[in-house]
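Pilot study result, target chain (697 residues):
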Amino acid sequence: MPKLVIVESPAKAKTISKYLGRGYKVTASMGHVRDLPASQLGIDVDNGFAPKYITIKGKQKLVKELKAEAKKCDGVLLATDPDREGEAISWHLANILGLDPAAPNRVTFDEITKKGVKEGMAHPRAINIDLFNAQQARRELDRLVGYKLSPFLWRKVRRGLSAGRVQSVAVRLIRDRELEIENFKPDEYWNIDAALYPQTQSNSKNGFTARLAATADGKKLTVTNKEQADTIVAALDGKSYTISKLEKGKRRRQPAPPFITSTLQQDASRAFGFSATRTMRAAQTLYEGMDIAGHGTVGLITYMRTDSLRIAAEASAAAKQFIAGRWGDNYVCNTQRKWKSRSATAAQDAHEAIRPSMPELTPDEVDKSISGDTAKLYRLIWSRFMASQMADCIQDTVSVSITAGDYLFRASGFRVSFDGFTALYEESTDDKQKKETALPPLEEGQTLKLRSLTADQKFTQPPPLYTEATLIHALEENGIGRPSTYAPIITTIVDRGYVEKDQKKLKTTPLGQAVNTVMMEQFPNIVDVKFSADMEKKLDIIEAGKADWVQTIDDFYKGFAKSLEDAEKNMEGKRVKVEDIPTDEICEKCGRPMVIKSGRYGKFVACSGFPECRNAHPLVKDTGGICPECGGHMLVRKSAKGRIYYGCSNYPKCNFMTWDEPVPEKCPQCGQTLFKKKGQLYCAKEGCDFTKPIEKK
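Predicted structure:
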């Protein structure tokens, strides 16, 4: 009889089955099979926080089939994902199937390749109880907070609300950033720039810009008003510009490390506009296996939930061999690089960084078999990993100090002497840094010609609103959540209506602000960043087998229960009002202003006279564009999957819709609205073929 191997998903089952052959039957649990009941707390607070696990609704038939299969097979191996959640699924499966959790019936695969599967199967082990307890503790903590706080929010804010231990911290971070921006007081400053070029040049083609930095004696100078700027500009009139100091050197740039979960989500957001959930969905598919011409079904990347930067020596060697063959030996990094984790708590070192399972399998080859999100993400992962094994980029740097009268200007630049890893990959960033440019050949003592001297007024800028990428970075830096939780955190706070996306920016809604205010005032520990980070560390200690999970929950619950009791007293007879957003629209039924309200299913427009007047309608945003088919208004709409599209206001009479954004500019040929697509504007009016490229700013 074959052995039964249970994994989470059918895709993973298909891939692994190919490698194991006839002696094994591989089936899927379809994720978790047991959990705490949805309709009750499911935790016996008075008796050691004993959980009451039940079979998840709709999984009864599956559980019955798994039991039947187990009886027909010669043993069971639990091959769920190699993390806390995977360990918990295996523990519950063992419990359901009557397996001994101390027996060697647990196998894990860091990569779903022939080698990775064979390696995992060769080293079965017992279920890691400490790992399971860490997951169990997290689940109970989240349940206790959510189940106890939600009814409170129902009574004090609005029915249907819910709270979360980690999600509430994320909302607080977003709101704190908004308040920081609102309270920001800009400081005025002036940049004084000299456009210069060597006297030997007949024109300014080889020119460069130097910025005022100090007085001639080297004292740092900050220009804070127009009067000061004008005085300096006047003082520089007619002055000669001489290079007083020139320094040459070499600078080495190291490549970024391979991806971990958070950096993958951040880079995919910057590069492709992917949400964290979308990124993880594509990564899961790549990990579980895809059909690649010439290779069959193969897992293309290693496990994608990790905060470790460790790379297997074998993978590094394979990458370097490929690099030498593709670019030459001088492009190979001849040392074993080690990177320090940026995470406040790097716990998941059991897994490597995210890398291609077969470095020699290039994106170009893979693109012949896959497309869309998975193809884009594979190229990103492959390029980042390969670059991490390549030689440094070497730059020849030059910096000059230029004296003019009583003032000192500075400029710097570089030339690439060896491109190294930049031949393949450049890390994306959220910072819009001033780019250095190459300077012309210069010498100390050389006199320069002045093309222009400009003084530009500037103001210090507040920090930007969070995006998904920067919020994930903040969560990681502060030790909030874990690789497996970043995507669900953002999805949850958006779905609950606490946060909304405006383009890529994350903003709290009036509802989110109201809930955050209550949480800050009544449950400061729950939304405290340090408190939450410390709780994550405690979960890591449980995972390491150095703390009792029940004691950890008990310590938390004592303080939480007291806070809940105090909050009930503090807010007795009180209710928090969620501010409505005013509009210019007037109710056609009673003449009062219409306002934007937030409900369980999103925003809508309603009469401010509610409940006396119950006039309401869906909230739609008019783009200002005109439908090319019927002349109706083009409205912003959202698909069932949350994707933005544009449709005619006369729907269903007019079915015109497009994914392409309308722009204010009108067609010069027919006067209709233009639409934006792939770097160009076009007219959608039938019979009009006007197009033009979008001008780059």
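One observation from the pilot: The chain has a mean pLDDT of 91. A full batch analysis is planned for the follow-on phase.
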